[in-house]
Amino acid sequence: MALKVDQGTAKALNRRLALNLLRREGGLSRGELAAKTGLSNAAITGLVSELIEEGFLKEGESTQSTGGRKPVLVELDYAARYSIGLKLMSDRVEAVLTDLSTEPLAATVVALSNVEPETVAEASRQAVQQLIPDSDLRSEKLIGVGLAMPGLIDVEHGVCRISHRFGWHNVPIASLLAEQVHVPVWVDNDVNAFAIAQQLFGAARRRSSALVLIIGTGVGSALIFHGQIHRGARFAAGEIGFAVDGGGLKTDTFANWSHRFSEPAIERQWAELCATSAGQKPVKLQEAAESGDPQAVELLGSIGRDIGIRLVGMIDLVDPEVVIVGGEAIRFGKALIDPMIEAVKQYSFEVPPPIEIDWENNIWSRGASALAIQKFFDFESADGVA
Amino acid sequence: MALKVDQGTAKALNRRLALNLLRREGGLSRGELAAKTGLSNAAITGLVSELIEEGFLKEGESTQSTGGRKPVLVELDYAARYSIGLKLMSDRVEAVLTDLSTEPLAATVVALSNVEPETVAEASRQAVQQLIPDSDLRSEKLIGVGLAMPGLIDVEHGVCRISHRFGWHNVPIASLLAEQVHVPVWVDNDVNAFAIAQQLFGAARRRSSALVLIIGTGVGSALIFHGQIHRGARFAAGEIGFAVDGGGLKTDTFANWSHRFSEPAIERQWAELCATSAGQKPVKLQEAAESGDPQAVELLGSIGRDIGIRLVGMIDLVDPEVVIVGGEAIRFGKALIDPMIEAVKQYSFEVPPPIEIDWENNIWSRGASALAIQKFFDFESADGVA
DNA sequence: AGACTTTTTTCACTTAATGAAATAAGATGG
DNA sequence: CCATCTTATTTCATTAAGTGAAAAAAGTCT
């Protein structure tokens, strides 16, 4: 429910406005900041000095004078604090310590013997301990811990409503972990976490809406509108992994996104292909595609096209400013991606939005770290679970 | 771009908050209003007396005392002002005069000899004139005119970017009309207008998100998030009419939503069916379905199921609080609707949101009227094109 | 060095909300 | 029927955040 706006919230909103402007545009003088926010110079003076006092902003170099006093650049001090990101996998917790720009400073991995909530919380505690052993430093400079996992997450209460992959049902994982690490903890769906990182410092940085598609262990998506994750009425927005497809007039053929398009599914299809074409010794799909193997190129092309066709439906529905595609399947390269983009261009209602491919290893845990960092740039639910 | 919040905008936001609370909940006492908005009693006293002075609120009957002074109910005075809605059709302009609750007070239709912007503007002027001949009354009590039409509309500038059905391209229809009627004019896509009406006083009244699906002359949709229409980066959100469908593994079969699912397309399929089944004299599809004709029930069932299957993809992506289905095809009744709902239930990822069917004749122009009314409940772009 | 220019800060003022106290209006009970 | 209690609404002094104008700071240019 929307709530009243008093002077306190108004101030917080203006603070967020200025911070996000600096995040998107880099260094700005106080005067530019005033012009771009619409606030008076006087107000900016006060706001900036508060933020400098808190350590989030620093004065940069003065730039060119235009015949008078040089403007003093003000910029975000990304090194001022740390954040920790934890990505839950079925067999391990991947952890990373980053600065406020999600730049990794250290990383570690803790193995999981099982996926019981207590086991996961204990492994997470160990990971945090390894990354910042000094508990004083933790309370001083660590802004919090972000936890990313597959499933439907109630981010406000820090509860995992449903995670099929972990077999969880209403697990208050944020508070379980917060009890152990004594810093604020935020949980979110892993694809949402990736999308937030893209929004803060990635391809969606200067855009207000985005559609994120992940082709990894499963297939999932995330939506950003007005610079905010759209989570849906039951935290299920973007859960396209199980979308059925009636196949035109043939309603009896249902193709499951994850079943055909996930990275494991693609590998499986390659294995089946290799098994049937006798005499050929099995080669890795990625290598085969890179060396131009016709069967591999054909398989990936067909899958890419089909993904593209489904992407068109999503684009036409929400009309995002940009589409960002990531996930482990990106490693299959152009053979998969180009036909996908081609299909989007061919079948879109209008000229489609730009499609950006962005993926690298360890990006999951950086996304998790962005969950905590986002709270600096975003005024809503700035409390986490502590 | 988001902008600063000063005391003026804060006040406007609080005013909006109170108005929307009253719209959703009906009459409330000042005390309840204070409790639900989070504002102090003192602030509510001031706010309410301003709104009463302006004529938008009135005091209602005092309710039951609970042992002390009776609370005085405050409610919206829907009769305080008028709004006019214009729905552009290819051969006519349908117009309705409503109160602030979109309740029709009078209606008229003006024929169009062609769809040139000037012709449309002139016909619209005539319609307004017929509904309120007295120009003094217009400037006093008419809050504005809402114009609904198919196509991509830049609502901020009142420009129709593209309308295939009218052959328009960047037509500043709002200012063309505003010049003639001398009241504020707002234009929007017709499906968006319908959705806004549903949000203000229909099935989405107490919800903050909704997915609206229209099966009419074409097939279109609208999205409401946070009580606001989601228009997309190029005003193209919801334009699913041309969505392609790769049909599972068979990428060569493309079924176009509008081509198979629009009301004319359904009629066409019935006509084809009647033509092939020799000896049978043609019966109207709606009548055939109502009388339980197996072929009609079968045809509508198959179409309904296919629509349902596609709806699942949309629901899984955006996870709306409610789905609202409307459009001229609703007249085909349960034979079409029930299989659609069945399919949604069968193939959804989670328990699907409630699906509400809401349609009646002349609803298009009431939706148009809601475009102007919405500006009272919504603080953004409250200026229109004047 | 003195005259401009441009940026940033200072300060008196305005506005909208707040909490506490006052007032209004009805209920209750002898 | 009057005194007292209860609940609803209004009044008022106070507070917080932003504004515009003027002052101060920090340059450039001749």
Automatic annotation (TrEMBL), chains A, B:
<keyword id="KW-0808">Transferase</keyword>
<keyword id="KW-0418">Kinase</keyword>
<comment type="similarity">
    <text>Belongs to the ROK (NagC/XylR) family.</text>
</comment>
<dbReference type="InterPro" id="IPR000600">
    <property type="entry name" value="ROK"/>
</dbReference>
<dbReference type="Pfam" id="PF00480">
    <property type="entry name" value="ROK"/>
</dbReference>
<dbReference type="InterPro" id="IPR036390">
    <property type="entry name" value="WH_DNA-bd_sf"/>
</dbReference>
<dbReference type="InterPro" id="IPR036388">
    <property type="entry name" value="WH-like_DNA-bd_sf"/>
</dbReference>
<protein>
    <submittedName>
        <fullName>NBD/HSP70 family sugar kinase</fullName>
    </submittedName>
</protein>
<dbReference type="InterPro" id="IPR043129">
    <property type="entry name" value="ATPase_NBD"/>
</dbReference>
<dbReference type="Pfam" id="PF13412">
    <property type="entry name" value="HTH_24"/>
</dbReference>
<dbReference type="GO" id="GO:0016301">
    <property type="term" value="F:kinase activity"/>
</dbReference>
